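Sorry to interrupt, but I need a hand with the structure work. I would like you to pick a protein and set down its sequence and fold. Please put the record directly below this note.
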Amino acid sequence: MTKVLFAAAEAAPFYKTGGLGDVSLALPKALTAAGATVRIVLPYYEQLFPEQYRDQIADVTHFWVQVGDHAQYCGIKTLTLAGLQYYLIDNQDYFGREGLYGYWDDGERFAFFQMAICEMMERVAFIPDVLHLNDWHTAFIPVLLAEKYYWIEAYRAIKTVLTIHNLQFQGIYNPIVLDSLFRIGTQTFTDDGIAFYDQVNFLKGGINFANAVTTVSPSYAQEIQTTAFGERLDGVLRANQGKLQGILNGIDTTLYDPETDPALPANFSVKALAGRATDKAALQKQIGLPVADVPVFAVVSRLTKQKGMDVLLDSLNDFLMAQKAQLIVLGTGEPALEQAFKTYQAAYPKQVAAQIKFDVNLAQLIYAGSDCFVMPSAFEPCGLSQMMAMRYGSLPLVHLVGGLKDTVTPYNRFTGAGTGFGFDDFQPAVLRKMMTQVCQVYHDTPKAWRQLQQQAMRQDFGWTASAGTYLQLYQDIMS
């Protein structure tokens, strides 16, 4: 039975800022169901830790981690939830804050976190076969195992897998951190090691030193080896392509299930869709739009240019003037984009509702009550929202990149095949044209629309297949 320590900076249900948080719950859960022994290690962000789980936390041990010249307290706490055991790394100076990331000392915070993981394993008597690392916050661990903790005999058989959820975030710091944080020499500060334009790059170190590297969709694994998507690491990824693999993320199909979802006024299924009309009316009423039989487009997203929100905004004016359609936007992000959606709401109060906030229950209702789910991302490593939308019968309209390309089959009006709509040319005029086509299919061919909904809802986006692929990968690098 393979022993896995899954290390990440965030995980649902405790804290999440995006897909990494969802994956850090769902993948360990699926690996456990497939027969692996999995434990998860996270920072203990005390201010953010949900109140309902606090009484389940137990202290395991504590010790001191040398961060440069300073010995820093490291507490190890644990709790078991839904069959998964978690270790929580406690240091209030580093993690007792109001947010997860975005601080001036993030490099030091996650340097401590990574050394604490390395020094924790012996102390809690859990030496994994595989350390599964996620993004730059844990990517330096393979370097540390080779350069700092090589003398620990129990660690020598540990294999490492690094999953890149978003290549844009890399952890780039002054080379002084090698001594001032990690207390290691400069022997790895080379082009085929951790050096990156005279800086240290945590993620590059992980790519070069890990036994295997994965991304969260097959298309994204190919795209990041090009200059267009490679974020200046495309050469490093091409050099490591022999150990690079794209494994599609999944969603928790028990959590996202329109037949049982308690957030919905009316439950429904692929064979009995009537409840969707009730949910659509409830959605329109709740957010103050006229209850009408018009196509409802929806966005549940971070409002950023990466998510294509600027392209969507530039396509809206002519579209809203020409079409009887509604747009619901739920999310927060760049202030200028937030304000632009509010401006459209003011200009088109019967067509646009801008909900500039984070609301889990409203998101569920949007999946169930909208007709078309818009994801025009400039790039998308995997994306989970389009899978959730399809499960609820909201047809995705996507820019055909990364995981969006791997999960959405564009509608073919001649054969009726498809699970949504897609476009290649990343331009506002093209997106507007596609939104117009969605309206035409909705109004003119209701049978084709219903068939598309059912085809989308029948897609299997569970974690079982991907967990099996990960288990095979673990076996391959262990053999």
User: Anything to note?
Assistant: The chain is about 35% helix and 20% strand. The chain has a mean pLDDT of 97. The first strand starts at residue 3 and ends at 7. Residues 106-123 form the longest helix (18 residues).
